Amino acid sequence: xxxxxxxxxxxxxxxxxxxxxxxxxxxxxxxxxxxxxxxxxxxxxxxxxxxxxxxxxxxxxxxxxxxxxxxxxxxxxxxxxxxxxxxxxxxxxxxxxxxxxxxxxxxxxxxxxxxxxxxxxxxxxxxxxxxxxxxxxxxxxxxxxxxxxxx
Length: 151
What we know:
Blueprint: H1 9-39, H2 44-80, H3 90-117, H4 125-131, H5 134-148
Helix pairs in contact: 1-2, 1-3, 1-4, 2-3, 3-5
């Protein structure tokens, strides 16, 4: 099935990039919301407002975009021959590993958001702020892998 997208390939690739941008925008913002939410736990009305903001961000941006990124990404991987054992796709294997880890981070952040909504935040403020940088680091590595294809 390698190359099955034909003339649609560039359109599918563009859609993938668009949804990656949406997902990254959400992942850059969401951990910052967690920092503010945790800081507001002592003020129930403010904490509830942050929980509502987080839920909207998840529903409108994060969940739809991560689903689209994975669905379109799998189509692209099939197009490139990933499941046929095509040569020269080491970069894609590394990229997929990073995307799996980033998806895990996304899941952790959603879970922590729900804990905060129950008033059960337990991480240090500094730890949350440092975790806020993980999506940026991941996206730098992913872009390098996707563009440079070093192996």
